[in-house]
Structures are given as C-alpha cells and as structure tokens.
Amino acid sequence: MKRLMKISMVAGCVAALAACSPKEKEWKLVWEDDFNQTGSFDPEVWSKIPRGGSDWNNFMSDYDPLFEVREGNLVLRGIRNDVLSGDTATYLTGGVYTKGKKAFMEGRLEIRAKLNGAKGAWPAFWMLPEQGQWPMGGEIDIMERLSHDTIAYQTIHTHYTYDLGFKDTPPHGSTGSIRPEDYNVYAVELHPDSLCFFINDQHTFTYPRIETEQEGQFPFHQQPFYLLLDMQLGGSWVGEVNADELPVEMYIDWVRFYQKQ
C-alpha cells in the first residue's frame, strides 16, 4: 500500500508540475481591484472581517482607522488598543474578505503588497471555501509572514493533512524569499489536479491531487473559495507582540484574477 501511494504521488507531482508555469500569454485577466477609489474599499466586493476566537481573528475590529484606501493601496493596520475604552482587546487589527460577495475557482489569483514588519505581526492572504467546513473544505494560504522575516510561508490545510496527519505525502507547504522593504507579488494557480504557488513569478511549490484511499486529500476542485486579506498580531505561531513597534501597516496595491484563454 505504501509503495502504491508513493508511485501515485510521484505521478501526480509530475503531472501537476507540468501544469504549473510562470504567468504567460495563456492567462487572461478577468477581474481586478486596484484600490484607486477614494476613501474606502468597494463594499460590493469586500467586507470587514469580524472578531472570532482563533489566533488569527481574536483582535479583529471594525474600527474605521484600521482601514484606508490611500494612493492606490488598501492599507490595513494593527495597533495597540488605547482608543476603544469599551473593548477589552489588547490590540486591534483590520482585515477584509470577499465572503458571500465574490468567489474564485479555477484560475490564477495574484496579490501585490508591501508588508511592514513588527515583532508579533502576522499578515496573511488566504482562501476558504464558501460552503465547506474547516478543515474538510480546505484552506489555501497564499502568503503568511511572521514579524520581520525575509521569507513568506505558503501552505494548504485539509482533513488529509490536518486531521489525518499526512503533511509530507505530498508536502503541504513551502517558503519563498521576499523583498521585505518593497512590494512583492504572491500568487496561487488553482488547477483541477493541483495548486501551484509563486512569489514574484518564481515557482515555490505545488500541491498535487494524488490517488489515495484516504479521505479529503484534495478538496479544492469544483468549489468556490473566497479571499481573506488580514493583519493579525500575536498568537501561538508568531509569538508575543512588541507594542513599541506598533502601529504596523500593510499596503495592498492590487488583487488580480486570471483564467485560461
């Protein structure tokens, strides 16, 4: 059984790599938001992410100064909470998502952004299914950056990787170098048989669909995913926050979605 899984995994990886290539003429731009409007983001596409009980959303707030559209960028902030007396959260962070408004399936999604660093800062661009429950429905992490790192993490999570523990057959994530003081372009291609990840058009890794008797290995095909863009502070992965380095901002220049011609 292990031998058969290994053979099928290798075959899947080879086929998936053949489908993954830097953006070329076969991709057609079908939607974009370049944040050139004045004042705020487009409410027909984006909503503020509400607070929750997880590390990534436990400081989310709808406090308006956390969100700004300025000079062609969507600016999302993380700050110390010395402004909302009725809110007991230590910090306040801003995030937006397209949940219930715009979803993505097969194609290539790109985000161009500059991530300012701070100890304990954890900006992320990622995707969740409109309908499926986590982790059975899958999670696609296009970019996560920790503190002042010069790398970004790109990862997938599924029932197969998270609940069943198959994190290396095939590998479910990788990292890539970024220019920490500049804008970088983070991308994922959603194919029927693979997810292909890029940073600045450099291919970082591919997660293929493989033949396996295990449940939930590749839930990414034929279901719509929405996009989340968020700043977060602290948590078990990134660690403690240095409040002296706040506020921290990230600048999102544009979001683009392509499909094959």
Please give the structural blueprint.
Blueprint lengths: L1 H18 L7 E7 L13 E2 L18 E4 L2 E8 L10 E3 L1 E3 L9 E9 L8 E6 L9 E6 L6 E7 L1 H5 L9 E5 L5 E9 L2 E6 L2 E7 L16 E6 L17 E13 L1
Antiparallel strand pairs: 1-16, 2-6, 3-4, 4-5, 4-16, 6-15, 7-12, 7-16, 8-9, 8-15, 9-10, 10-11, 12-13, 13-14
Concise overview:
With 261 residues, the protein is mainly beta. It is built from two helices and 16 strands.
Please report the total strand number as a whole number: 16
Strand content: 35-45%
Low-confidence stretches: 1-5
Report the helical percentage. under 10%
Q: What Rg do the Cα atoms give?
A: 18 Å
Shape: globular
Distance linking N and C termini = 40 Å
Describe the main β-sheet briefly.
9 strands, antiparallel
Helical/strand content category: mainly beta
What number is the mean pLDDT? 93
What is the overall number of helices?
A: 2
* N to C succession of SSEs: HEEEEEEEEEEHEEEEEE
Describe the structure.
The protein has 261 residues and is mainly beta. Helix content is 9%, strand content 39%. The chain has 2 helices and 16 strands. It has helices at 2-19, 159-163, and strands at 27-33, 47-48, 67-70, 73-80, 91-93, 95-97, 107-115, 124-129, 139-144, 151-157, 173-177, 183-191, 194-199, 202-208, 225-230, 248-260. The strands form 2 sheets. Strands 1, 3, 4, 5, 7, 12, 13, 14 and 16 form a 9-stranded antiparallel β-sheet that branches.
